[in-house]
Amino acid sequence: MLATRTTIYIVDDDDSVRRALGRVLGAHGYLTAGFASASQFLEEADLDNAPGCMLLDLQLPDISGIDLQQALCSRIPVIILTGHADVASAVLTMQAGAIDFLQKPVSDVQLLAAVSKGCDCATRQFALASELRDLKKKIDRLTPREREVLAWIVTGFRNKQVANRLGTVEKTIKVHRAHVMQKLEVDSLPALVRIADRMGMVADPAA
């Protein structure tokens, strides 16, 4: 899969490795960006505005590749590419979510297969993250009272029950409910439930 919108971040302290990988990937339509250290990547990489996949060496000059992988908390797919492979490192990185573990020198076939898989994963992750960011922006439009009303409505409480819970009248709850649906850009209760579930906004009836 040629995912030209996905950036392949090459994090390796060896300039010749970065250039060689960049040439191979570039020849197959991939956009690449090289970084000589973990700190440079963390300072310069833009992970919010486009999908990305990382080719990561384990031995870096500042922090280890494993530490960088863990610091990213699965924000982007990681492919380990190292000349210092051992079973313990392979197990640790795969447990931390690496999608592949490759040893240098790597063949073009292996590299491209891993990157293709990484790009597929990156596209899905980025779409999900973008959706969650958009939902958060919509949720942020709600007033504190509207958030309360939303939480109770999606739990299954009727307008009158919510009014009793919040010490107000049913008419007021209906107004709040209408505002919530308008701000969240939905027109049905099932849609509200899906959003609230995604954002963890369901109320506790025992509270």
Q: Would you kindly provide a written description of the structure presented here, covering whatever features stand out?
A:
With 207 residues, this protein is α/β, with parallel strands linked by helices. The protein has two domains: 7-131, Response regulator (Rossmann fold, 3-Layer(aba) Sandwich), CATH 3.40.50.2300; 141-199, Arc Repressor Mutant, subunit A (Orthogonal Bundle). Helix content is 55%, strand content 12%. The protein has helices at 15-27, 38-44, 65-72, 87-95, 108-140, 144-153, 159-166, 170-184, 189-199, and strands spanning 7-11, 31-35, 52-56, 78-82, 100-103. A five-stranded parallel sheet has the order 2-1-3-4-5, sandwiched between helices. Helix 6 crosses helix 8 (170-184) and helix 7 (159-166) packs across helix 8 (170-184). It starts with 6 loop residues before the first strand and ends in an 8-residue tail after the last helix. It comes from Cupriavidus pauculus. Residues 7-119 form the Response regulatory domain. Keywords: DNA-binding, Phosphoprotein, Transcription, Transcription regulation. This is DNA-binding response regulator. Residues 135-200 form the HTH luxR-type domain.
